[in-house]
Amino acid sequence: MRGVGFVKQQLHSAPGVLPRALSGSGQHAALSLSALPRALGASGRHTALSLRILLCALGLVACNDEEGAGTPPPIEEPKPDAGPAEPTPDAGPEEPPPPPRHDVVEAGEERPGGDTSLTPSSASTAFKRPAPNLTLERRAEFFTGEAVFEADWLPAPNTTADRDGLGPLFHSISCLACHVRNGRGRPPEEGEIANTLLVRLSVPGADAHGGPLPEPTYGDQLQPRGITSVPAEGQARMHWTEVAGTFADGTPYSLAAPELLLTDLAYGPLSPDTRTSARVAQPLIGLGLLAAVPEATWLEWADPDDTNGDGISGRPNRVWSRREGRAVLGRFGWKANQPDLEHQNAAALLGDLGLTSALFPDETCTETQTACLAAPKGGTPEVSERQTRALDFYTHLLAVPTRERVDAPEVLAGKAVFHRVGCASCHRPSLTTGTLEGYPELSGQRIWPYTDGLLHDLGDALADGREDFLATGREWRTPPLWSLGRTRLVSGHTRLLHDGRARSPLEAILWHGGEAEAAREAVRNLTQSERDALRAFLDSL
Question: Of 497, 500, 502, 509, nearest to 535 (Cα)?
Answer without folding.
Answer: 509
